[in-house]
Predict the structure of Aldehyde dehydrogenase.
Amino acid sequence: MPAPGLDPVLDPKLLARALSGKLLIDGALVPALSGKTFPVVNPANGETVAEAALGEAADVDRAAEAAHRAQKFWAALPVRERGKLVAACGQKLQEHVEELGRLVALETGKALRTESRVEASVLADVFTFFGGLAPEMKGETVPFNPDMLTVTVHEPLGVVGAIIPWNVPMMLMALKIAPALVAGNTVIVKSAEEAPLAVLRACQIMASVLPAGTLNILSGFGPECGAPLVAHPVVKKVTFTGSVETGKIVARAAADKLIPVTLELGGKSPMIVCADADLDRAVAGAIAGVRFTRQGQSCTAASRIYVHADLHDAFIAKLTEKVNAMKMGDPLDEATDIGTIISQDQFEKVQNYVAIGEAEGGTALRCAQMPTDPAFAKGLFAQPVVFTGLPAHSRVLREEIFGPVTCIQSWSDFDAVIAAANDSDYGLAATIWTRDLKTALDGSRRLEAGLVQVNQNLVVQPNISYGGVKQSGMGKEASLESMLEHFTHKKTIILNMT
């Protein structure tokens, strides 16, 4: 089947077939050198919708050569010109929001209305935002000596390797490659094997705006594709989002080359609901925060909810009532609130944790009704689970599940609940729900997390610095700070005027 053109294609199955067997290297859709492919499965019904190209080390070499060749030209462009081209990518992507939303819903099982279309819109917005930040690539003048002119300038690192996950692949790709491009780097993306299609299509669209080789994307598996990308000698920076275990492997490989790395890893984010909180608002925040519409597949998911004893029972009643009213079903149906888990392995992992929680003495409150349409009998649909009564040592309370499971604990002492919230290997995000300013400020200061919100539970937003502490990673994304600190190096220039 011929490669798709650049007009929007609203039939996601047709588009998936047209993208089969393709990588994007040097501005063109090409097959892997080996000709090998692997299946892309629709998790809503188990059907194979495409065959993704199986990228390997030889394909990494091709992409690296193209990116390295293009980087000198790209870096030599005035930064405002780079910004205009990146912003133009955002404008072009905006024309494809519906197409990309449908395609990512097909391959990931995320509901179109509540998740996938939103992600496609954010994808376009991120490129528009970072394109507008181009004039902020400014250095400094340093008052070192009145007889010397001392300035600093930001220079690109070179070729950036960006390894992305499957949960929000388009958005997380955008947060990596948009600032890298504006800063003057060229980029090679390695997509997640579970979700290679929408990001490939997005890169094809952007390649129609950018110089050939500026942006390349490979699909494949970690050992055969991701590892050669990180190890490649022309790759001068790696930015990775994924599991802690894989992040450590990436960090060790980057350390061998002495190149910088940004890691956005796991989370076990606490949500603290105080006695004076607005109950309805806190419940709505929990629904958004647990990411029920994304089947809880989020690093920032509010998977530990600590509710003051005065509100505990009412909170659980309202939360389960609201989640029970949500509709599970066909991800491409506008009426659907909740789609599916991404893969069979992840589905089994989630079900195993639910069984562990029940064996540990917790009560699993299963919410929402499973789909009854026989067309989705093989779909990876999982009921949201709200656990109560888990012991503090519970694995379900301590380990990242990455599924629609949250745990509610009762508390009465603020110092104790802050200690419980901090008793975790992770430190990505946290929220506090209170009407008292002192409590909000005190709790925000004491919580060990890279992102703390009060009375809201938003996902990552452009222009809001985002990144974790402890095992949740290192480095920041989504902001001007990330563009300057993580995708450039600072050069100092001293001119002796005497």
